[in-house]
Specification:
Blueprint (H helix, E strand, L loop, with lengths): L1 H21 L5 H18 L13 H30 L2 H6 L5 H29 L7 H30 L2 H9 L2 H5 L13 H9 L1 H15 L3 H32 L1
Helix pairs in contact: 1-5, 2-3, 2-5, 3-5, 3-6, 3-7, 3-10, 5-6, 5-11, 6-7, 6-10, 6-11, 10-11
């Protein structure tokens, strides 16, 4: 049974990846926007790094996680879009008539969306190196950033898939992921927590899981191997993934019940 689930998940994931590759305009705009954010933030805000709180840190390394997380939010919509397309062309209904695992039907598009973000993150990091990015922890630190990125992408993809299964509407699925964009800015987006003046924004940043994703990446990029700072991002991913993938699974169960 277990082998069947993994085999079905693999086959559906590969199909979704092939579909994405055949339609490159489904992910290229998101990559361009994320790279644009990186260039603008680095060019317009790098002077902030002269403040004493930054302690001489490279602002490019500080702002890079913002570009990666924005790519995660934009790219997560791909999982929902793929499901909606399958529903509209009847493939989803035909898939339900097969012995394919129901869990695999949900996980396939989610994993495909996560892998799409993995590739986008590599490209964004490469752009960062071209701009002069320096990573305190070297190659292993880059791998950790990739790990955090795909974990956060998995969380968003789960939510996108859940919305798609509930609404069966492409516009609703895409719009559903956009509500997460404010999370980027209600956080330590441009300056460290200590430099946030507004008390309400400090409270928002404290309860916002995106803050811990940023700080986890920034730790390995700027400060080095600080275990607890790194683990806060991992914990945030585990909690949010548990919520969003459960949401997707429950949505799938209801979609199956409706036929």
């Amino acid at each position: 049974m277990g082998n069947s689930v993994w085999k079905d998940t693999w086959l559906i994931t590969v199909r979704n990846i092939k579909t994405t590759i055949r339609n490159p305009f489904s992910f290229i705009p998101n990559l361009i926007i994320s790279a644009f954010f990186l260039l603008v933030y680095e060019g317009g805000l790098s002077g902030i790094a002269q403040l004493p709180t930054f302690d001489g840190a490279n602002y490019l390394a500080f702002i890079l996680p913002v570009s990666i997380v924005s790519a995660a939010i934009g790219g997560a919509g791909g999982a929902g879009q793929g499901i909606v397309k399958d529903i509209e062309n009847g493939f989803f209904s035909r898939l339900l008539l097969t012995p394919a695992s129901r869990l695999a039907i949900v996980l396939g598009p989610i994993i495909a969306g996560m892998l799409q973000l993995f590739v986008q993150t590599i490209l964004i990091i490469c752009i960062g190196f071209l701009l002069g990015l320096k990573v305190e922890t070297g190659f292993l630190g880059v791998l950790f950033v990739l790990f955090i990125a795909i974990g956060w992408g998995l969380a968003f993809a789960g939510y996108s898939a859940g919305v798609a299964l509930r609404t069966k509407n492409a516009q609703a699925s895409q719009s559903g992921t956009l509500i997460f964009f404010p999370l980027i800015f209600l956080s330590t987006t441009f300056v460290p927590y200590e430099l946030i003046d507004a008390q309400w924004l400090k409270i928002a940043a404290t309860i916002n899981p995106t803050t811990y994703i940023f700080e986890s990446m920034r730790t390995v990029l700027i400060d080095g191997w600080i275990f607890w700072d790194m683990m806060q991002g991992v914990i945030a991913i585990v909690v949010v993934c548990a919520l969003t993938i459960t949401f997707a699974a429950v949505s799938a169960k209801k979609a199956v019940a409706r036929g």
